[in-house]
Automatic annotation (TrEMBL):
Residue spans of biased composition, Basic residues class: 197-207
Name by which UniProt lists this protein: Uncharacterized protein
Region (Disordered): 1-24, 132-207
Biased composition annotated in UniProt, kind: Polar residues: 155-164
Top-level taxon: Eukaryota
Length: 360
């Protein structure tokens, strides 16, 4: 038999037990044997201590054994490579020592106090103890706080908000939140052609509601507006032309008289001229029409606003010069100019259809 240097033999480490050995001495001998057992696993008839031997002693003795096994395993593994049986022996010993320690600690836990009877309601929210108040003359042993009875808990269910919905007949879960589901958008194929990927449904454009055209009558004396209305209603010619085109009559914030025309009436300027001839110097008449802004590009750098107005009169066949259509004239690239012109919607549409205008 080969002995390892520095390690006592099995018989030297473990003294023979005798029936006269006191219990502390026997526990100490078992602790010494448990710590040294993994080192003698290769000896003939060597065996590990039994679980009964691991169960002997107090909690401090078991902790001492685990500490000794861990230190012995660390010293044995240090600077060694081929470690098989010894490591397995240490592993088994540590496992049994730890199991014995767990059992010892579990046996020292005081027993749980008796559970009080549950209330009549089956819901955990309303569960109360029958001994919620202890009597004044209770002994110290009976003054242990009792735990509430949770009752019978069924399978846990969750609502659509991922909250635990417990089974109870006394209340009903109500979800007041209204969630709007988004409509699934059509997905285009990844490998499709460029044309199919480029064509996507566009949101519909909001329809813009324009104010109808109107005629503004401004008088120096506000008291003359009543006489002006009487004159307009008393003239049969104006009733046929202007009266049939007027939708309502109101006063503006500045105090002027506003004749709001019906939808589809586009000759507000002509009606304003006719009213101006009838009223004369009594009041000033002007027409309000919804206009569109268009740009005229590639103009010569010597072109003026007056020339632009004259060219539009000749192009559209309507005298637009009295409306002062040319709003701005700015310089552009290569010595050219860009003009911004405001025209009524119908005249602007006609000018855009023509596309070109010759100025100068």
């Amino acid at each position: 038999m080969v002995r390892k240097p520095g390690v006592p033999s099995w018989t030297e480490r473990v003294p023979p037990s005798s029936p006269r050995t006191p219990p502390p001495t026997m526990v100490k001998a078992i602790t010494t044997r448990i710590i040294a057992a993994p080192l003698h696993c290769k000896e003939k008839d060597a065996r590990l201590p039994s679980p009964a031997e691991f169960a002997t002693g107090t909690v401090e003795d078991k902790i001492e054994r685990i500490d000794g096994l861990i230190q012995g395993l660390g010293k044995f593994i240090e600077n060694k490579s081929n470690l098989h049986k010894e490591v397995i022996s240490y592993q088994l010993s540590l496992g049994m020592a730890f199991s014995a320690l767990v059992k010892s600690l579990g046996s020292q836990v005081p027993p749980r106090p008796p559970v009080a009877d549950k209330a009549i309601c089956t819901s955990p929210l309303f569960t109360v103890s029958t001994m919620s108040k202890r009597p004044a003359d209770a002994s110290p042993e009976m003054r242990v706080p009792q735990k509430r009875s949770a009752g019978f808990s069924g399978p846990i269910q969750t609502d659509q908000n991922n909250n635990v919905a417990e089974d109870c007949d006394d209340y009903v879960l109500v979800d007041k939140r209204r969630r709007q589901r988004r409509k699934p958008q059509p997905q285009m194929p990844i490998n499709g052609d460029h044309a199919s990927r480029a064509l996507r449904p566009r949101p519909p454009h909001r329809r813009v509601h324009h104010r109808p055209n109107a005629i503004i009558i401004e008088a120096d004396d506000p008291s003359t507006y009543a006489n002006i209305l009487k004159k307009l209603k008393g003239d049969p010619a104006l009733q046929k032309t202007v009266g049939s085109s007027v939708n309502n009559i109101r006063r503006s914030a500045a105090g002027a008289l506003v004749l709001q025309l019906k939808k589809g009436v586009d000759n507000a300027s002509d009606l304003g001229e006719e009213l101006g001839k009838v009223l004369g110097t009594t009041a000033t008449v002007s027409a309000l029409q919804h206009t569109s802004m268009i740009e005229i590009k590639d103009l010569n750098e010597s072109v003026t606003k007056e020339e632009i107005t004259m060219a539009l009169d000749a192009l559209l066949g309507v005298p637009v010069s009295r409306r002062d259509p040319a709003k701005s004239l700015r310089k552009a690239y290569a010595g050219t100019q860009v003009a911004v012109v405001a025209l009524p919607d119908d005249l602007a549409a006609t000018a855009l259809k023509l596309g070109h205008v010759r100025i100068g």
